[in-house]
Design brief:
Blueprint lengths: L1 H10 L7 E4 L2 E8 L3 E6 L4 E5 H6 L2 E3 L5 E10 L5 H14 L10 E7 L4 E10 L5 H18 L21
Antiparallel strand pairs: 1-2, 1-5, 2-3, 3-4, 6-8, 7-8
Length: 170
């Protein structure tokens, strides 16, 4: 652990306050001692990860690059225009102050579901300036509003109930 802490200090894969994922632990780096790296999870729990484990693990540093990609899926009805839905969603992304224009935003057809055509929405934001989870929530809310205003349906997944013996009526 001590030797790993020296190697980590030399390599400097993260700084205090960085949002990292190490060994399936996602959180903010609080400090690094000679034995452990202390991470505060998004739920507020402190986790001590031995430096030997940190050194041998894949480290995802979500704050080393200020740009962060966010994505979500929205399902539209089969009777609706895919092009209209894509343009409606793209306009919301272009108008949102936190969404970056470069890299470009994308609204792509992802899958054909049982009741919906699923569109995958991708956009980028500056993670140092904005909270990705708040921006994602805002964008989803505005997309829902714009899709409703454009009269594009968002049907529920189809469900089928089969009663092989029928339904008794008394």
């Amino acid at each position: 652990n001590f030797l790993a802490s020296i190697f980590l200090s030399i390599q400097n894969p993260f700084s205090i306050g960085d949002l990292v994922e190490i060994n399936d632990v996602l959180g903010f780096v609080q400090r690094m001692t000679t034995r452990t790296t202390i991470v505060m999870t998004l739920a507020g729990n402190h986790v001590q990860i031995p430096n030997a484990t940190v050194y041998k693990s894949i480290i995802y540093n979500y704050t080393s690059n200020p740009n962060r990609r966010v994505d979500f899926i929205i399902g539209i009805g089969y009777e609706d225009s895919i092009s209209l839905a894509q343009e409606t969603i793209r306009q919301v992304l272009e108008d949102h102050p936190a969404v970056l224009n470069d890299p470009e935003q994308l609204v792509l057809v992802d899958t054909l579901g049982s009741a919906t055509i699923n569109l995958q929405v991708y956009f980028w934001l500056d993670g140092r300036e904005y909270s990705w989870i708040k921006v994602k929530s805002s964008v989803i809310r505005l997309v829902k509003q714009a899709v409703d205003e454009a009269c594009i349906s968002m049907p529920d997944e189809a469900r089928e109930m089969i009663f092989p013996q029928g339904v008794p009526v008394e």
